[in-house]
Structure formats: C-alpha cells, structure tokens
Design brief:
The protein is mainly alpha-helical. 79% of the residues lie in helices and 0% in strands. It has helices spanning 11-33, 37-63, 69-87, 97-118, 122-147, 150-170, 188-216, 221-241, 244-255, 259-289, 297-322, 327-339, 348-374. Helix 3 (69-87) packs antiparallel against helix 4 (97-118) and helix 11 (297-322) packs parallel to helix 13. The model is unreliable at 1-7 (pLDDT under 50).
Length: 375
C-alpha cells in the first residue's frame, strides 16, 4: 500500500507535460481553422497520436522511476522529439507531414525498445515486446499516409490510429500470449496524478484560448460578458473534476488489486475529456467573436457537448471503476449537453450564459455535498 506523498511528480515529468500544452493549442487552432467534419476527424486523429505518445511515455516513467539516470535521459530525448512533433501539428495534413510522422515513430519505437530493456519484470518485458509488434504493424500506415496526398492522408492515418486504439483496448495481445495485469506492480496513484495534471493542462489550454479570443475581439461589454461566461464554464469543470470524484479515485488506487486496469481505464476517459475541452475552447472562441445574431448549431453544440461529455466521462469512471453512481455527473452532463440546442432560438451570448450558470450550480452542489460528507 502506498502513501499519498509517494505520488509526487518529478520536475522533469512536469516539464515533459508542459510540452503538450503546445500540442493542445495547436490542435485547437487546427480545429478552429478547419471547422468541418473532416477537420474534426483530422483533429481527433492527431489528438489520439499525441496522447498515445504522452501516455506510453508516462507509463514507462511511472514503471521505471524518473530518478534513475537512464529514465531521465529517455524522458529528455522524448521531450525534444515531442516538441518537434507538436510543432508540426498545424502542417501535418498539409505540406509537412514528415516532421510529425518521423518524430512520432522515433519516440514510439525507440521508447518501447528502451522500456523492454529496462522493464522491472519478465511479464512487463513480454508485454512491451507485444506493444512493439503492434507499433511496427501500424508504422507503415503512418509512412504511407505521409507519402499520400492530403486528400487521402486521413484514410491511412485513421487506419493507423484505429490499430493503436484496438491494441490498447485489447492490451496488445499476440498469438499465444495475453498478459493478465492483475497483481502486477504498478504505481496507480502516481499515474492518476499524471492524468490529473494533464487535465489541468487541458483546462489551462481552454483558458488560454479564451484569453486569446478576448484579446482579438473588440474591447466592449459583450466581449467581457461572453469571456467571463467561458471562464466560468472552465472553472466549474475544474471544480467538478477535482471535487468529490478525487477522493474516491485516490482511495481506490491505494486498495485496488489491479492498478494497471484502473490506470488504463483512466487513460481512456482522459482522452475523451481532453478532446471535449479542445472542442469547448473552439466553441468559446466562436461565441466571443460572434456573440449576437444567428449562430450555427455547431457553435451551440461545441460549447455544450464539450462540458457535457466531460461530466459524463467522469460519471462513467465513477460507475465503472469505483461502482459509485454519481447522479450529479450524469444529470449535469446530459442537461449541459442538451443546452446547446437553445442556440436555435437564442443568441450565442445567452446560451453560453445558461451553460455557465448550470455548471456553476452543479459545481456548488458538488462542493456542498463533499463538505457535508466530511462533517
């Protein structure tokens, strides 16, 4: 059993995570500039690739402590290559795909070989050998996509991402081998802390996008009002993400006999939560720049489905992993998600105000329930 203080995140891990603030900003800009179903599919494809790099690296640095010199060197190299990869996001589907693909494949394959060499147990070594097989199987699809024209690139890279998701979901089985993760040594508490930090980074990216939108918009009362509502939504999501759900997850991380399973499930949930925050950031930008008049339904859905999916994923995590039914997260997610339909009859500034008000009420209710349970 681990104590709470053992979950401390090393400065190098924080530095590595901050590199991915840049990635989230790049992904938000890509979606804002290509606001269509294809643009959304491109953004999701790149996001999954980026989070795959982040998660596999974070798992390796959790399994093999960063305090070891060999892990420090690995994380520094991945950080440098990750900066190149993230800088290329804006051009990955245009005229510079190779910077993204080559740096990503170097990280994925090189780090996996390093992990096989340094893994602490025979079972882990076997698993990461299986992971390497899956990565090598998907790598030609990334290369073929980089060689293809921009119109067909999404097909090849989408197939590569599908293989990565399938392998992750199935725990990367190979013929004659499927690893049972129960009772394997793993610091689930530390990994959950890493996820929490990345959620904070994604929330911070949403705030940065809102601040940039306010700076570009006319300095008037409507800009201040819509910007404040957008900020209120983000603050409420932060309060709900690190409210009552936090203590339950931490307690389960200490007591669980399958720390790998809870960490893996949390990663899947976090992926959707981060995607929802990127969508929310773009929706906030649209409302701040065009607060009055008629707005497209997509704008309303972005500022409502983003936080709605965020809450629903929290509710799913509580129910599936901790066997706790949180009506607040389920009801709040559904109500918030449906609120975007109001944009069909109301101006954008009013819709974003309603969503901000609803989420604030739920955050206050969660705070009240948490403090009542502590008394």
């Amino acid at each position: 059993m681990q104590k709470r203080e053992d979950y401390e995140i090393a400065p190098l891990e924080l530095f590595f995570d901050l590199i991915f603030v840049f990635a989230l900003i790049q992904l938000s800009h890509h979606l804002a500039e290509h606001l269509s179903w294809r643009g959304f599919a491109e953004t999701v494809t790149l996001l999954i690739a980026v989070l795959s790099v982040w998660s596999y690296t974070s798992w390796a640095a959790t399994m093999i402590p960063v305090s070891r010199a060999t892990c420090t060197m690995m994380l520094l190299l991945v950080t440098m290559l990750g900066l190149i990869m993230n800088a290329a996001i804006g051009f990955a589907f245009s005229d510079a795909p190779w910077s993204f693909v080559l740096s990503m494949l170097c990280i994925q394959i090189g780090r996996t070989i390093w992990t096989i060499t340094n893994a602490p147990t025979k079972d882990y070594k076997q698993h990461f050998k299986a992971l390497l097989i899956w990565l090598l199987f998907a790598s030609p699809l990334w290369v073929m996509g980089a060689q293809a024209d921009s119109d067909t690139r999404l097909f090849w890279w989408g197939a590569a991402v599908f293989i990565d998701l399938l392998g992750s979901y199935l725990a990367h089985p190979t013929p004659g081998h499927r690893l049972n993760f129960e009772q394997l040594p793993f610091d689930a508490g530390h990994m959950l802390e890493r996820y929490n930090l990345f959620i904070i980074i994604a929330l911070g990216e949403t705030i940065l996008m809102t601040g940039a939108s306010i700076a570009k918009a006319p300095t008037d009362l409507m800009t201040i009002f819509t910007g404040s509502c957008a900020l209120l939504i983000t603050i409420s999501l932060w309060a709900l993400a690190f409210g009552s759900i936090q203590k339950h997850a931490e307690a389960h991380a200490i007591l669980t006999i399958n720390p790998v399973r809870i960490s893996h499930y949390a990663m899947n949930v976090m992926t959707i939560m981060v995607a929802s925050l990127i969508v929310l950031a773009v929706g906030n930008e649209k409302v701040v720049h065009h607060p009055v008049g008629h707005a497209a339904l997509s704008t309303g859905l972005m500022i409502s489905l983003g936080p709605g999916a965020f809450l629903l994923m929290q509710g799913l995590f509580l129910k599936s992993m901790l066997n706790i039914k949180s009506n607040l997260h389920w009801f709040g997610g559904i109500l918030t998600g449906l609120s975007g339909l109001l944009i069909l009859i109301l101006p954008p500034y009013f819709v974003i105000f309603i969503i901000g008000f609803v989420l604030t009420c739920f955050a206050i209710l969660d705070w009240h329930n948490r403090h009542q349970s502590m008394e």
